[in-house]
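To illustrate the input format used throughout this study, we show a single complete record. The first block contains the structure-token representation of the backbone; no residue identities are included at this stage. The design step must infer an amino acid for every position from geometry alone.
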């Protein structure tokens, strides 16, 4: 098959700091990707770099691999780049190559046009990341699974979550007592590994199962992974909408009436199918005896967390949240428009004296701090919202 030598012109449309249209060839892209892949300790099951691509781009990659020898340095790839801005691209494209190797198997770009478009978006996001990190914030941004998406695309992904619905299923309960210095339910065998909701607006189901897993583990001493797919498929009559959003209180009510089976008995598939399936028959492993809504303030949230993991709704649509990788997150731009359901699994204070909540997300370990975010904490009754609205709608189940 003849090598693809046509160069693809991409208009930047203001996304990057390039003065004019830029030209990147598929051969240049594969040259850099191949070199980076061969010098990276990738944990993926991909045997060669072409496994990160699909369709036409996979074929172009095969053409390149079978027709070129491995380069010893990415600077040798410049011979394949007809571009006045080749030095700038050579500096930034390896960073994008590492991103693809870390996260690309779930994306698999299928044309050089698509790859280059995502490269420019990625580079714009990295410019934002570098700018924010230079400010000396208490948190650090970096490349995440969402770094090849514009913030508008990321927000569109979040619009399917629909966690801010009216709720009246759980009873309100005010807690009393003193807030301890810290608790981390991960160290008490009450938190399962980070999961991945995929391309389905089912965050509510993952927050629900996480809270049930914690309550069940604390009561029985056994940590069991429960089924999100059962909730996605079966809890619609309780006010949930499968891959188009739902609410943890509604899901708790479903589990009270119907019970919940295990992840292994009813595996999660909606992350790839992008839709709910038909409700299956299953063997119930646990039921809930009730659930409680936590009064909206950070003191009550912290007291609830002292007794078990807690489902919380937050706003997650800011660009800094999209690119979060570590540290105590306190961006004031993260407001109170609740659009995402997550699980608070503890609280503490770091060596710099910064108080935080430990929050487990459902976006795989490819986002955040290995799938977690540490959100700034202010455990007083007068703080009724908290960073990202974390204190506004907490709730927890009783096994």
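Output of the design step:
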């Amino acid at each position: 098959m003849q090598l693809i030598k046509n160069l693809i012109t991409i208009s930047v449309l203001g996304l990057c700091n390039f003065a004019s249209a830029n030209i990147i060839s598929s051969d240049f892209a594969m040259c850099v990707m191949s070199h980076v892949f061969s010098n990276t300790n990738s944990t993926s099951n991909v045997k060669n770099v072409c496994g990160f691509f699909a369709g036409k781009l996979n074929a172009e990659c095969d053409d390149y691999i079978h027709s070129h020898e491995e380069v010893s340095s990415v600077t040798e790839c410049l011979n394949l780049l007809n571009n006045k801005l080749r030095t700038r691209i050579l500096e930034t494209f390896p960073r994008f190559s590492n991103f693809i190797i870390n996260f690309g198997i779930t994306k698999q770009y299928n044309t050089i046009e698509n790859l280059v478009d995502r490269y420019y978006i990625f580079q714009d996001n990295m410019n934002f990341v570098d700018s924010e990190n230079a400010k000396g914030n208490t948190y650090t941004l970096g490349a995440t699974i969402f770094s090849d998406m514009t913030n508008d695309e990321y927000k569109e992904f979040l619009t399917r979550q629909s966690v801010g619905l009216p709720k009246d299923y759980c009873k309100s309960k005010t807690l009393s007592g003193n807030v301890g210095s810290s608790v981390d339910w991960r160290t008490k065998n009450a938190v399962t590994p980070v999961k991945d909701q995929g391309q389905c607006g089912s965050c509510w189901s993952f927050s629900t199962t996480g809270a049930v897993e914690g309550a069940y583990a604390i009561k029985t001493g056994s940590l069991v992974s429960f089924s999100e797919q059962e909730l996605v498929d079966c809890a619609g009559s309780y006010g949930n909408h499968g891959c188009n959003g739902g609410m943890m209180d509604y899901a708790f009510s479903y589990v009270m009436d119907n019970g919940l089976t295990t992840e292994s008995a009813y595996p999660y598939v909606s992350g790839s199918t992008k839709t709910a399936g038909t409700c299956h028959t299953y063997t119930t492993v646990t039921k809930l005896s009730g659930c409680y809504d936590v009064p909206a303030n950070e003191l009550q949230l912290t007291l609830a967390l002292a007794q078990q993991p807690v489902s919380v709704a937050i706003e997650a649509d800011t660009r800094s949240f999209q690119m979060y990788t570590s540290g105590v997150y306190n961006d004031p731009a993260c407001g109170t428009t609740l659009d995402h359901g997550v699980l608070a699994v503890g609280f503490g204070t770091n060596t710099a004296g910064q108080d935080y909540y430990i929050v487990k997300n459902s976006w795989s370990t490819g986002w955040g701090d290995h799938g977690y975010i540490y959100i700034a904490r202010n455990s007083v009754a007068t703080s009724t919202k908290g960073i990202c609205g974390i204190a506004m709608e907490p709730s927890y189940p009783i096994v």
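Structural context for interpreting the output: Residues 1-22 have pLDDT under 50 and may be disordered. The first strand starts at residue 8 and ends at 10.
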